[in-house]
Amino acid sequence: MKKTLLLAKALIVLAGAGCGNPDDMVSNEPSETLGTASDALTVQNCVSLSASSVLASGDDGAGSVAANTLDDKLDTRWSGPGKGAWIDYDLGSVKSISGAAIAWHQGNTRASNFTLSVSSDGVSYTQVYSGKSSGTTTAAETYAFTARSARRLRITVNGNTVNDWASIAEARVCGASSTGSGVVWRGDFETGDRSQWSKTQMVSADRLQVIASPTRQGSYAIKATVRQGDNPINSSGNRNELVRMTNEKEGDEFFYRWNTMFASNFPSAKTWQLFTQWHHSGDSGSPPVEFYVNGETIYLRVQGSTVVWSTPLVRGQWQDFIFHVKWSANSSVGFVELYHNGQLVLPKRNVATLYSGQTNYLKVGLYRNSSIAQEGVVYHDGWIQGRSLQDVQ
Q1: Spans of the chain below 70 pLDDT
Q2: For the structural domain made of 183-392, what CATH number should be given?
Q3: Average per-residue pLDDT for the chain
Q4: Where are the domains of the chain?
Q5: Got the DSSP string for 50-118?
Q6: CA-CA distance, 101 to 51, in Å (whole number)?
């Protein structure tokens, strides 16, 4: 019965393409994406899968139909009215899906709230991603999640920062590696506990709590909480961290993907607050690679002194990271490369990523200056380490 209703809805959508109030009239949207009329779609961090068909919950009645999102033109679009409008891509058969690349209409002037869901039968859908577009670009942004076997991917839009319309210029379903042979380790908490990690440094179990909500992908994430005085290893600062003995050594090259969200009341402090670090085996001094917050800015720093990337701190929203590293104590051999929220924000840059004669290991959670009195909460999800970009998508 539900399958019949889905088919009927698709037929109604197609039949109604020539009627109704146009998006342009109702929401004052221009007839093309500004500055992109001659551009074609390019995607980053996505192995595109071909969709056999696409349908939507509705459109503007003025030609902005679902099929426009597959025509490789950024000056056409699908526009659906109202919060909850959706567009649904059928791959023709069950495949391994690991994300979606979406070019948002007017994506450089507004941010869209959306979810991604997958289905094998077009009836039962599982939400695998919830987020917000950057609001800074009309180019495709890639949103990754843990690979799932599914036939359909649905994008549901819950309005944007200007109006309640859903407007997408182009979209592609992203496929996962067919073999996964390059995946070195997963720390995505889908075991429902902390067993994927080597050990913890925490004062009590409630400081590193596996939770079912909020999550970025899958069923579980971890909530890291730090209060003033938390010092489980009798060292400097306050911390509660997960440890994975990744043991990166001279010449190793890996890709790492993870998701981090800072709580809405995350402290604003003019001092360091680390949320991800690759610590050296020597255990003394600053780590060779660290992601941290200071004030209202997120930083990536290497060798304890060189900041190679920064971005404004955003609270209450998941931040997506893909980090590509060649581990070496030689600055002409080692390098870092970073994707943030689906965009390449740090092209490959040569820099020393190890201390001479030492190896590295991974620490995730929250580690901060002991002078901070306010409780700090950070969420982490989706950790994966692989040998190629495709492995971690």
Answers
A1: 1-40, 176-181, 283
A2: 2.60.120.200
A3: 87
A4: 2-175, 183-392
A5: --SEEEES---SSS--GGGGGSS-TT--EEE-STTEEEEEEEEEEEEEEEEEEEETTTTT--EEEEEEE
A6: 13
